[in-house]
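Entry:
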Amino acid sequence: MSGLVLKLGPKERVLINGAVIENGDRRARLAIVTPNAHILRLRDAIHPDQATTPVRRVCYVAQLVLSGDAAPDDTRHQLLRGIEQLSQVFTDPDSRALLTAATEAVLADAHYQALKALRALLPREERLLARRAP
């Protein structure tokens, strides 16, 4: 995870290697230089009860790696399979680019970037699900 820069708002929390860090009263910028650090913005975190849609479930698996609750090797196949399943539904060029970026990130063990790309699909998924709702 070398080269990751986190920009935190006032009082924003982030999980770094299992420790919750809370920013002070001002905006801050942190440069993470330790490779393979487990980092998760808590504002981006998905609670297990919220992992109720296909994109949210794949995001949740990536999140488990970032929180240190799952090993990258143990989740790689599950993440790649989930991304492949999402690619059957998200066929537009922008979504395909996000899914390709997520796949490449998983293969490179860059789970923060994978989660970032997958989270960008959440609004699209909400729109698709809203169309199908009676």
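Helices lie at 54-67, 72-87, 93-107, 111-119, 122-132.
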